Amino acid sequence: MRRAAVLTGGSRGIGLATARLFAAGGYEVISLSRSVPPDTGIGHIATDIIDLASVEAAGRALAQRATDWDQIVLVHNAALHRHDTVADLDAAGFLQVLTANLAAPQALNHALVPVMGAGSSILYIGSTLAEKAVAGAASYVASKHGMIGLMRVTCQDMAGRGIHTACICPGFTDTEMLRAHVGDAVDAITSMVAAGRLVEPDEIGRLVMVCAENPALNGAVLHANLGQIER
Fold it and tell me: What's 3-224's CATH class?
C-alpha cells in the first residue's frame, strides 16, 4: 500500500509535528509551505496559501505525482490569524484571510479529489473558535466557522467514493503562531485550560492520524483542548 500525507504548513508547529508522525508511520509526506521543513524525510513544495496561483500550481504538481499513491491524506493545516474586529476589518483584509483559510483548502480539494483512491481522507484543522467566538479575531473566527461547513459539505459530496473527512479543532496549542498572537498573555490563557497547560503539537498530530485511519469518524468535529474553562 503506497500512502501519502500532504499537509499545508508542515514546516513548523502542528503541521511539522503531524508530518513527523505520518513519516514515522510509513507515509510519503509532503509539506506545502513557504519554509522548507527541517526534517529531510519530509518533502516540500514551496507554497503560499495567501496566493491562490501558488496553491493551484502545487495542486497540479501533486496531481501529477498521485499515480504513485494508492491513498492520500490531505491535511488542511496552515492558516492566517490576525487581530481584527468587525469595526476595523475591511473587505480586502477579510478576503485575504478567507483566501488562506477557505479558498486555498478548496483549491487543493479541487486538484486532488479526482486522483484520490478509496481509503483517502481530507482533514481540516479547525480551532476552538470554529464553534465559538472571542473579541478581536473576527476574520479568523468567521473563516474557521466556514471550515466546519466545508468539512460537512465534503462529507456529503464524497459519499460513496470511499473518501472520509473530519475537522480537528485544537485549543490553546504551544506553537509559534499562538505565542505570536497572545504575546505576554500565555500564562493567562493557560489558566483557562482545565489541565493547567497548553496542548502539545504532537497531541494534535496523533489525533489527525487517528482520523486519517478511521473512516468511522467521517463528518466528525473533534475538539482537542484539554478542557477549556469558560469565563
Answer: alpha beta
